[in-house]
Design brief:
Length: about 400
Amino acid sequence: MSNPRPAPAPTPLNVLVGVSGGIAAYKAAELVRLLKKAGHHVRCAATRASTSFVTPLTLEVLSGHRVYQEEYLVGDGSGDELHMTAARWADVICVAPATAHTLARLALALADDFLSTTALAFDGPLVLAPAMHTVMWQQEGVAAHVEALRRRGAIVVGPATGALASGDVGVGRMAEPREILDAIHRLSQPAPLAGQRVLIAAGPTREAIDPVRFLSNRSTGKMGFALARAAAARGAATTLVAGPVALETPPGVERVDVTTAEEMRRAVEVAAPEADLIVMAAAVGDYRPIEIRSSKIKKGDAALDSIALERTEDILAGLRAIAPTALIVGFAAETDDVIDNARSKLESKGADFIVANDVSRSDVGFASEENEVTILGRGSEAHFERQSKLHLADRMLAHFERALANRERQPA
């Protein structure tokens, strides 16, 4: 068996490492060491609280540069605005650890120390490695700040699940320095899906019964929207066909809003022939009323006792005929015999992959911020443990990228 081809060396970047005040600050020293070893140029900005956990001298020795601290807000006597100088110098700002307080300041565009002032003046990629106790990470306010930063394009690495400084075990550990390094390296490499066209369908469909009532399901579209965000971030020309959901359009994504299964079918079939990758993450209704009443059905009306239904067209099953060269991915939202039912769907729908999703669980699936799935291929199976849907979407796209690359390498 031949040895794998070594990965290309990353393009050297100017990386400003921001260190905020949490116990995980000690890991920042290892991150700086790894960045320097990889050939990057590194400078550090330390918040006042962080100096209680790691000394500026440690970061100065490892980076080879004096560490930016609070005194730099008033300048060094040269007349330069040093936060502007630092922002212009940096190709990437990486905040590791990013505490709940620092995330809030960045999300709210506050500028009350050197790090936040520089970040506000910076228009390049922002990499964040959150670190805090599980209880803090799960607070609604923290989640809102993280989501706001993601919407602006920030790359969030972690947090991981494991032992915490308190002795508890849970999510909140800062990602390991090598994982953060990998995220920074991806910024210096060509976008992996550049030149590819990705079509994603997300959310539920609704089938009217009368002007007031409809048949639908519990899908919120979060998984599909996360996949669209990840595809666009990886450079793909991304089209998102969205059922009725209350979610903002991810950056760089072309969105087509639909309501019914028939509207979704038509929108998908318009975009599918040009797509390289199609991900049907939508929960398309299987049935619709044969008759839609033009006025509201009143209580006691026999029409509410029995509603005649008909099958909707199977969008996934029809894709292979109109997109013969695309990589097609379907979702199987199951409550029983999840893997067996998903594998049957893989065989019957003509898809390349089926994502098996256990929607009977309250901690993942519909309406949850997290998910756990198994991707079934023809002769392959990959399990992705419980994690945020945004992180999971990135890992799933990497899985599909490899399949696309393998397909392109195969002889015609």
